[in-house]
Amino acid sequence: xxxxxxxxxxxxxxxxxxxxxxxxxxxxxxxxxxxxxxxxxxxxxxxxxxxxxxxxxxxxxxxxxxxxxxxxxxxxxxxxxxxxxxxxxxxxxxxxxxxxxxxxxxxxxxxxxxxxxxxxxxxxxxxxxxxxxxxxxxxxxxxxxxxxxxxxxxxxxxxxxxxxxxxxxxxxxxxxxxxxxxxxxx
Length: 186
Fold this sequence. Notes:
With 186 residues, the protein is α+β, with helices and mostly antiparallel strands.
């Protein structure tokens, strides 16, 4: 009797369109679950791959942002040092230019401070014959010039750093301006 009930139940399922055969209903369902599990594992690998790609791309952008922030901070510190040197000048500041480099002579009470731009580096020397200190490596351009006004001569320094990325959205340009305090007006 059990056999008849079971076969009648299987016939009802077969006519309802469940796709379960009379003899292997339980085993087909387990096979379907294994196939679904493999599909889910494949989807998991695809999603993890995309997540890792996004993570590493964000990490690279974060490292680039940190490098740019460090370059900006270094340029601002050097610019403030230059402004301090110009403000404390005791005599007339002069520029010496050659085709390959530019020298800025700032007289002070203890000697002369020199700023030199050449070979894509900005260097500073405090005493005559002293060592040159590299202030900024990877400088694309640097131009220091006097700006003569009616009652005062100010000095302007335009600085452009080299870009580490080729398709950067913002060019690293800086302009610093300072007025010597102890120098007479023109």
